[in-house]
Each structure stands twice: as structure tokens, then as C-alpha cells.
Write a structure and sequence with these properties.
Blueprint: H1 18-28, H2 39-49, H3 54-61, H4 65-93, E1 96-100, H5 109-119, H6 128-138, E2 143-144, E3 147-148, E4 152-156, E5 162-166
Helix pairs in contact: 1-2, 2-4, 3-4
């Protein structure tokens, strides 16, 4: 459906023009100078996160659907690597760091973490069951049943944020 000024409206697929894509990136705060994503990766991710089909994105960007799929895949890999890097950097500066060795029972972990937090004078705002769930969700592939199968690191930041990393 066309508006009176001749521009297209956003129908089922949403973003329809290059200007709309530029506006979307601006709204999300994308800055090509500081991002680990290329502009094309950011464009594709932004549109995909808003429910756009790869074929629609390909038409808008003047490329193939296969190329959009490839760009999206690389973008998601870059995002995952960036998240891992940030978690590592946060863990380096965290005042509490607890190594959980393979063979440890999941039910023993909260006591270990609470003890180290107490020694550091930090209050952890999680109950033992909450902490076990957080750890098991974050390290789902490293825990089988109640047994830790792979070395884990549980860190607690100054603000009480708990992060779990697998080794």
C-alpha cells in the first residue's frame, strides 16, 4: 500500500527501504567504528531480529538469500565470540572466583560460592536453589545429572552478578 507521498508503508515484512534500515541501525545504536560486526552483518541481524525473512532482506540489499544466510551466520558467530570475550574480561576483575572441579556435586557448589563470598565480604543475592539453577542453565553441557563433568569457574562481580564459564 502506498502513502500519499509515494513512499511504501511497512506491511507484514516491516522494513522496506534502505532509509528504514539506516534508521533501524541508528535506533539500536550501531556504530561501525566500534562494533565487531560489519555494517552488513548488523543490517541483517537487525532485520532478522525484527522478523524479516532472509528472502526479503536479500531483495532489499540486492543480494541472494544464500548470501544473507551466510552473513547472518558469521554475525551470530561474532556476537557469541564477543559475549565470551566480555565474560572473560568481567571474570578477570571479579572479586570472587570459584573453580569447580569435575566430579563435584551440583548441590555442593552454592556452599563453596557462599563461603568465598563471605570471605570477600560480599553478599550474594541468590538462594542455594537459585544459584544451582543459574549454574546448571549456564553450563548445561558441562553437568550431567548432579555431577560436574567439566571444570567450571563461577565468578561474582562487585554488583553481585554471577557468571559461569566452562574451561
Amino acid at each position: 500500500m502506498a502513502e500519499q507521498d509515494g513512499s511504501t508503508t511497512q506491511e507484514n515484512e516491516g522494513v522496506e527501504t534502505r532509509a528504514d534500515v539506516d534508521e533501524l541501525l541508528a535506533e539500536c545504536g550501531f556504530d561501525a567504528e566500534t562494533s565487531t560486526l560489519t555494517r552488513r552483518q548488523a543490517e541483517v541481524l537487525a532485520m532478522r531480529e525484527r522478523g524479516r525473512k532472509q528472502e526479503t532482506i536479500a531483495d532489499l540489499l540486492g543480494t541472494s538469500r544464500a548470501n544473507v544466510a551466510s552473513v547472518e551466520s558469521r554475525a551470530r558467530e561474532n556476537v557469541a565470540k564477543s559475549r565470551t570475550t566480555v565474560a572473560f574480561a568481567d571474570a578477570l576483575s571479579a572479586p570472587v572466583r570459584v573453580e569447580i572441579t569435575p566430579g563435584t556435586d551440583l548441590y555442593e557448589i552454592p556452599d563453596e560460592v557462599f563461603e568465598v563470598c563471605d570471605e570477600a565480604g560480599m553478599k550474594l543475592h541468590h538462594t542455594a536453589p537459585d544459584l544451582m539453577k543459574l549454574i546448571s542453565d549456564a553450563a548445561i553441557d558441562a553437568i550431567q545429572g548432579r555431577e560436574v563433568r567439566q571444570r567450571l569457574f563461577v565468578t561474582v562481580a562487585d554488583d553481585g552478578t554471577v557468571q559461569v564459564q566452562t574451561a
